[in-house]
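User: Here's a structure from my thesis project, written as structure tokens. My advisor, Dr. K., wants to see whether a designed sequence matches the one we expressed. Can you design one independently, without my sequence as a hint?
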């Protein structure tokens, strides 16, 4: 089993509440979503087509993000697609907030 390493993703102030933003960390495209004080980080590439999820709409009440290309929505907690055409999940990462830093666990 590969060890998980904490890597700084951004500052808390870099993402507005209710918004998503793309960050590139250790060769990974990540989509960070801030819902109030809660943070979610998933893979930024839609599993249906190579499109950036961070450019899509955030559905706060459902805790989902919508791919702007074909409309698939993904759970921010599990990465599972909630609507077609996507059928495969996207990766989900552990988020750690320490003071003003947001860190992500990567393998």
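Assistant: Designed independently from the structure alone:
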């Amino acid at each position: 089993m590969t060890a998980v390493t904490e890597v700084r993703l951004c500052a808390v102030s870099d993402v507005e509440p209710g918004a998503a933003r793309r960050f590139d960390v250790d060769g990974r495209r990540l989509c960070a979503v801030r819902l109030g004080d809660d943070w979610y980080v998933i893979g930024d590439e839609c599993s249906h087509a190579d499109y950036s999820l961070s450019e899509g709409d955030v559905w706060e009440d459902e805790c989902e993000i919508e791919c702007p290309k074909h409309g698939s929505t993904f759970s921010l907690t599990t990465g599972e697609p909630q609507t077609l055409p996507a059928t495969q999940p996207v990766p989900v990462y552990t988020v750690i907030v320490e003071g003003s830093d947001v860190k992500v666990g990567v393998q």
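When you compare it with your expressed construct, this may help: The longest strand covers residues 28-35.
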